[in-house]
Design a protein that fits this description.
It is built from 9 helices and 11 strands. By secondary structure, the chain is α/β, with parallel strands linked by helices. The chain has a single domain (51-251, 280-322), classed as Survival protein SurE-like phosphatase/nucleotidase (Stationary-phase Survival Protein Sure Homolog, Chain: A, 3-Layer(aba) Sandwich). A 9-stranded mixed beta sheet has the order 3-4-2-1-5-6-7-11-8, with helices on both faces. The structure holds manganese (II) ion (MN).
Length: 326
C-alpha cells in the first residue's frame, strides 16, 4: 500500500473515527472505541457522495486534486498471486488498499456474514505488500471498507485477478463479481477481472487490462448500478487480439451429484463433474475470450426483466384468484 498524508479536516470522506484513532501513517485507525465506532456509523457520509469516479464527476487523472483511492479485493483469498498482481498494477493510478478474504471464497456469490462476528487481521500479500484479511466473504471485505474500516471512502473497487474466467451465468455464483456489486451498492464504481486458466498463470495481460479499465472508469465514470466484468484470455500479451466490448453469454454446466459413504456408513455428496463450457455466440464474453481477446462486459444491478414486465401486466394477477374455493 502506498502511504498517503493524513487527509485534512476539509476532506468530506474522513470519518469521525479517524480523528480519534487514526494511525499517523494514514493506515486504518487503531482499535477504535465502541463510542467512536458508533459515532462513525452515525456520522458516516453517504459513500454515494464520496466517490469521484462517478459519471458527471469523473475527470482526467491529471485533474484529480488527490490520487484516487482504490480498494482491491478478490474471492480467491489474501494469498492469491492474482490479488497481488492487481494491486501492483493499480499502484500506477492511485493509492491502493487491499482487503480480501482470509481463505478461498470462490463461488460464494454475494454472501454477507450477519450471524457471526468477523475478524480482520493485517497480513502480507504474496509479494510482501501490506493488506488486511477478513475471515468472511468478498462482500464482507467490501462492506467492512465502506462501513468505515479504513476511515474513508473509495473512488474505485477492483476485484480479482480471479483464477478462472467468470463468464455468462458464472456471474450469479461469482464471489469476484459480487465484491464489485457490493461496491456499486455502496455507490462506488467497480470492476471484476478474471483470468483464463491454462497451465502456469501469467498475469501480465490481466495487469495491463486492469490499468486500462481502471483508468477508463476513473476518467469517464460509471452511473448508479453499473459495473464492468473483465475476462482475460490465457495468451501472452503479444498474442492478444485486443479488447472487445461484449454481452453475457450462456454457460453450459456439467455438474454431477457425486455420492460417497462416510466412515459411519452415511452418504454425503459432492457437486462434481467436468468443468463448464459455454456457448461462444458472436458478441458474447465467451466468444471474445475464445478468440484470444479481452472481454469487457457492462453489467447493471437492475435485474428487472423488461420484456416480462409488460407481459406480466397482461396476466391480470388478482388476489381473489388465490382463494381456496376459487
Ligand atoms: Mn475465485
Amino acid at each position: 500500500m502506498t502511504s498517503r498524508p493524513a487527509p485534512g479536516p476539509e476532506d468530506p470522506t474522513v470519518l469521525a473515527v479517524r480523528a480519534e484513532g487514526a494511525s499517523a501513517e494514514g493506515g486504518r485507525p487503531e482499535a477504535p472505541t465502541l463510542r467512536s465506532a458508533a459515532r462513525a456509523r452515525s456520522e458516516r457520509p453517504r459513500p454515494v457522495d464520496a466517490s469521484r469516479a462517478r459519471r458527471g464527476v469523473a475527470r482526467p487523472l491529471a485533474e484529480w486534486a488527490t490520487p484516487p483511492r482504490i480498494l482491491v479485493t478478490n474471492d480467491d483469498g489474501i494469498d492469491s498471486r492474482g490479488l497481488a498482481a492487481l494491486a501492483r498494477a493499480l499502484d500506477a493510478l492511485g493509492d491502493v488498499y487491499v482487503i480480501a478474504p482470509e481463505t478461498n471464497q470462490s463461488t460464494v456469490g454475494h454472501l454477507k456474514t450477519m450471524l457471526r462476528p468477523l475478524r480482520i487481521r493485517e497480513r502480507r500479500l504474496a509479494d510482501g505488500r501490506r493488506g488486511w484479511a477478513i475471515d468472511g466473504s468478498p462482500t464482507d471485505a467490501v462492506s467492512a471498507a465502506f462501513l468505515g474500516y479504513f476511515g474513508h471512502g473509495f473512488d474505485l473497487v477492483a476485484s480479482g485477478v480471479n483464477y478462472g474466467n467468470n463468464l455468462g451465468d458464472d456471474m450469479t455464483y461469482s464471489g469476484t463479481v459480487s465484491a464489485a456489486m457490493e461496491a456499486v451498492i455502496n455507490g462506488c464504481p467497480a470492476f471484476a477481472i478474471s483470468q483464463a486458466l491454462n497451465g502456469d498463470v501469467d498475469f501480465d495481460l490481466a495487469e495491463r487490462a486492469a490499468v486500462v479499465v481502471a483508468r477508463g472508469i476513473l476518467e469517464r465514470g460509471l452511473d448508479d448500478g453499473e459495473l464492468l466484468n473483465v475476462n482475460v484470455p490465457s495468451v501472452p500479451v503479444e498474442a492478444c487480439g485486443g479488447i472487445e466490448i461484449t454481452r453475457l453469454g450462456q454457460r453450459v454446466y456439467q455438474d454431477e451429484l457425486v455420492e460417497r459413504i462416510d466412515p459411519r456408513g452415511l452418504p454425503y455428496y459432492w457437486i462434481g463433474g467436468q468443468p463448464p463450457t459455454g456457448v461462444a455466440a458472436r458478441g458474447t464474453d465467451f466468444s471474445a475470450v475464445e478468440a484470444g481477446r479481452i472481454s469487457v462486459t457492462p453489467i447493471h444491478l437492475d435485474l428487472t426483466a423488461r420484456g416480462l414486465l409488460r407481459r406480466l401486466r397482461e396476466w391480470d394477477l388478482d388476489l381473489a384468484g388465490g382463494r381456496a374455493d376459487g
